[in-house]
Each structure stands twice: as C-alpha cells, then as structure tokens.
Specification:
2 helices; globular
Length: 103
C-alpha cells in the first residue's frame, strides 16, 4: 500500500488539513492511473478507453472489474490490479466513445 494511502491510527481525533485530498485518497483504488475524481466530473472508469482487458473486446456491456492499461503504461507494474466500473475517473480519462462522435 502506498505511503500516502495508509491511514494513521491515533486515539486522538485529528483535524484534516486537506479534506479534498483525504476524499481523493479514500476513493482511489490501487491500480488507478491518478487520483479518483481528478478527471471529468460525472465520469467513471467504465467509460474510459484505458479500462480494458488487453486482447479482449472492450465492450461496456460487462461491469466486471478490469485493469487500467494507463496505470500499467505509467508505472510498468505487471501485477493486475482490478478497478471497479464505478471508480471515479482520473485525469488520464479518455472516453471510449470519443471515436464514435463525429465533429
Ligand atoms: S479513468 Fe481511465 S486512466 Fe483513469 S484510472 Fe480509470 S481507467 Fe485508468
């Protein structure tokens, strides 16, 4: 577990100095390419082109957890960390539907 994601254990209630950061830490899943919620508002990993099983169809009809290919590209981590479909999108979000929209 990354250091920043570890929870402090204290018998004394601590005041958060950065509630927004605390919120992002608590909602980010291991294996996400960046903080959950740092992407477009209202978007989830299931709508991202990077939420994929390499070598398989990337249809959005299955909500089974999948790895983030952007995370793997950025970190080189080969362990498969599965991201749930309803994880909030990060700043590397790339719409899987972008190629379907004509300008
Ligand atoms: S929004 Fe996309 S790039 Fe970001 S963690 Fe989710 S699947 Fe990965």
């Amino acid at each position: 577990m990354p250091l920043f994601a570890q929870k402090l254990k204290s018998s004394v209630p601590l005041t958060s100095v950065n509630p927004a950061l605390d919120r992002m830490v608590s909602t980010t899943h291991a294996g996400q390419a960046h903080w959950a919620g740092s992407g477009p508002p209202g978007e989830w990993c299931r709508n991202c082109a990077h939420w994929a099983l390499p070598g398989r169809s990337n249809n959005a009809d299955s909500f089974s957890p999948r790895p983030c290919t952007k995370y793997k590209a950025l970190t080189g981590d080969t362990k498969q960390k599965l991201i749930p479909h309803d994880a909030k999108a990060c700043r590397h979000f790339k719409s899987r539907y972008a190629s379907l929209v004509k300008s």
